[in-house]
Amino acid sequence: MSDTPLAELFWFNEDEIGLPEWNAQVFARAYCGGGAGPFDRVLHRLSMQFSVLVYLPGNCMDAAASLLTDREKGWAELGKPTEDALTVDEFWQTSTSVFAGLRRFWSREERRVPKLIFHNLDLLSDGRGGVEPGNAAKTALHYLVEHVRNGVVLGLSDRDAGELPAPIRRAFHEEVWLDELDDDRLARLAPAPLGERLAVDRALPEGTSWLLASRLRWTDPIRAVRIMDTIGADKTSLTDVLRAIEEQTPTVEYAQPHKLDGPGYGDFPTGYDRQTLELLHEYVIKPYRHWREFAATSREAGARLLRRLPPGLILHGPPGTGKTSLARWVAKSIEVPVRQVSAADLKRSDYGLTEQLVKHLFRSARRAAPCVVVLDDADDLLPDRESIEGSVASAERGIVNAFLQELEGFGDRLEGVLVILTTNRFASLDKAAARRLSLHCPVPYPRWREEVGEIVDTVAKTFELEYEHLRDELITAFMQTTRDGVAGASTEDERVRATEDLFAPRDIWSAMRLLPSPDRLTRAHLAQMLRWVRGGA
User: What is the number of alpha carbons within 13 Å of residue 181 lying toward its C-beta?
Assistant: First the structure.
């Protein structure tokens, strides 16, 4: 790696030293070092008898505990899983019985400060911002608070479970998150075979550790080492290494780009305004493709390229124009996974829970990077804070603030996460959110015969319709209004459509689905379809 001499590259055999020791060494290289690492500071605070709550990768809990127990004797461990499958309540019943024994022991050893390592604190949470309702969990919380008051406690919680409930967090003096790995620390974890193979072929330019970190920084260190060990044996170029990393770190919540095939996909999807597609291609797709293919000539050059990437964009337009499909096309074009969520998926009635879901959404996006996150109906989650009134105003503003704070984290280190908002009511979107995502792309109704013709051809092919002899008449029919004029329109969107005599792509799909197949279409079929579309008139 560019930042570490080749002779110092990290490599050891877990078969020789044993798996627990191997995990502990990986964890130490990731989060310790010279007293300046984040876990070094945790160890220092514990030595001063401050209780610390640490959020870390779940499979690193034993490694973190072993670093502490090897350094200082007298620590008791609690909450470790057993080989037997236990319910959460049974798990804490077992733990509290150990608590009682420890308390009796420490009461006899009056000069000894109780020191406790508490594993799996996330199992005390009910996942909705509260503590598990069972009596065993409540008793465990009581013992936890008691030991913090009378001794020193290192609390360990799986960072993927999110922030713990307030009653648990209040028990500790400090909280520490062991999150991303920067490029320097990731370089210390790189197995020697990977560095040697790339260095021999002169395919590892300056700043490569930074590029590897952009793909692996949110992967837990133990898994990151195993991934680099696997790909180091046969990959001979930086491009191959980065592609292999992406293949081995898929996120279940994200659809892979090769599975985004669908009607209208291609170099340009069908039925959209050409200027809209060219805008997306020039200012979004090309920069992200360039970033993915960047050879990392230097860390500075890579940082400059990252700063040129747009943090996201807003697709706005009337209902049914295909804004979400367009966002998926962008993801497919830059060959990255995509996750689609709506405001309804995130909003909850419990106070503070929506903010937690927003934070979890962005955390998962960082781990899946490079990726695309599509938020549909964004105006419902991010309404204009200046116009919010009533009893829910405070909660709504808190949700918007949480979103903006997370989005701000991408400002100087985008990490390859592209955020796309879609909305039917652009004017109702919070102004700060609109400013953060400064690329605003309108997605109007198809206005020209060529655009309508593309949609008609795509739908006819999908439904296997024999329509060629009536193609011009179909296009003409969809260039006319489906409403009986402005007076009959019930919403603003319908009034606009009636005035402009335009169909949404979704309307065309719905209407042509009524046509018989595989029969040869007749004008009678076309007339019947139009009557149905007009409400049986």
Answer: 34
